[in-house]
Amino acid sequence: VQVVTESGGGSVQAGGSLRLSCTASGLVFDDYAMGWFRQAPGKEREGVSCISRTTTYQTYTDSVKGRFTISRDDAKNTVYLEMNSLKPEDTAIYYCAAGRDVYCSVSWRRLPDYNYWGQGTQVTVSS
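RE: above sequence
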């Protein structure tokens, strides 16, 4: 059974930092591109970042560029999202997803292209 689990969410003040982790099991982790998405109340789920299978390519949505950093450790089957200079508008549930046929340089924001999703972790940023 394939399982994807996020952790590391919490409540911080604006300007603070959090590091999200996502661990996958039951799959060959380095066969998958990994994406982070988020969903704020009343809004659609949106792509935040994507990292390719070989870590050679990372991409970010414009609103987090320069503040968030995605990385992966294939030996630990884990992908990370380091979030700095957090803003109230970053408040959302953050989801991790694994996509076998996702290419971060192309259409990485398409939700149906991802094979496995985690349950999400809440991030709340107060002003």
